[in-house]
Design the sequence.
């Protein structure tokens, strides 16, 4: 039987097994997806059987493409936290209620979430002769701004008053991940202006939606621009007043 553990815990675990010839039993293995809004605090749950702190070792790791690229977030061993095993970029952003470890709670709190925090996180708890191992995928979302609509009479309409065509422009900014933009006309016709919509990823990682729609003002009154962000469960709209 070959067991692979998080990098920062490997040496501690090997040393313990050699001393005690421990038999490891899997208690629970679970994986879930958690969505957190940009800038907020993420709580990554990790629950296990209640045990004295002196009898357990607990680690949190952000998984990389390989075991060597894993990032250590938290290591608790022999009744105390081991800060030397923490990746520097997370040192001031993580919190675990250490008194909760005795109650079987190793939930990790990660403050000021950024897009770079997306990924798979693993909690590992060893309690001779048992272990608890769970993973959680963290996804980040950012809300798009309220759509801003501008109106401009089309050049063809200026030449022919009977045309009454208008060009509507809609902009919505600072969303994540990619969103979807729809034009909704008063008669209930929803227009997905795929060919007229572009989505730009800004240098800071967020997206801006821009779209244009040409309408006949006589038949389409009070059209609205609607933006959807499925991950954030956001739907936001504005009505054009031309």
Sequence:
């Amino acid at each position: 039987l070959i067991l692979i553990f998080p990098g920062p815990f490997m040496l501690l675990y090997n040393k313990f097994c050699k001393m005690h010839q421990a038999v490891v039993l899997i208690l629970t293995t679970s994986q879930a997806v958690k969505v957190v809004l940009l800038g907020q605090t993420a709580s990554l749950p990790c629950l296990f059987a209640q045990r004295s702190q002196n009898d357990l070792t607990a680690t949190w790791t952000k998984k990389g493409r390989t075991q060597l690229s894993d990032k250590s977030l938290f290591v608790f061993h022999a009744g105390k936290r081991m800060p030397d095993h923490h990746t520097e970029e997370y040192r001031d952003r993580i919190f675990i209620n250490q008194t909760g470890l005795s109650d079987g709670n190793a939930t990790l709190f990660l403050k000021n979430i950024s897009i770079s925090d997306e990924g798979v996180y693993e909690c590992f708890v060893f309690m001779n002769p048992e272990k608890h191992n769970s993973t959680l995928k963290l996804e980040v979302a950012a809300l798009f701004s309220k759509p801003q609509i501008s109106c401009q009479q089309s050049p063809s309409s200026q030449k022919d008053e009977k045309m009454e065509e208008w060009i509507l422009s809609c902009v919505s900014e600072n969303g994540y991940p990619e969103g979807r933009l729809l034009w909704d006309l008063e008669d209930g016709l929803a227009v997905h202006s795929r060919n007229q919509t572009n989505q730009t990823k800004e240098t800071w990682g967020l997206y801006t939606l821009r779209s244009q729609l040409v309408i006949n003002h006589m038949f389409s009154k009070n059209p609205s621009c609607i933006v959807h962000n499925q991950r954030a469960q956001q739907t936001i709209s504005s009505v054009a007043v031309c």
In short: The mean pLDDT is 79. The CA atoms of residues 73 and 89 lie 9 Å apart. Residues 145-155+163-239 form a domain with the Immunoglobulin-like fold (CATH 2.60.40.10). The radius of gyration is 26 Å.
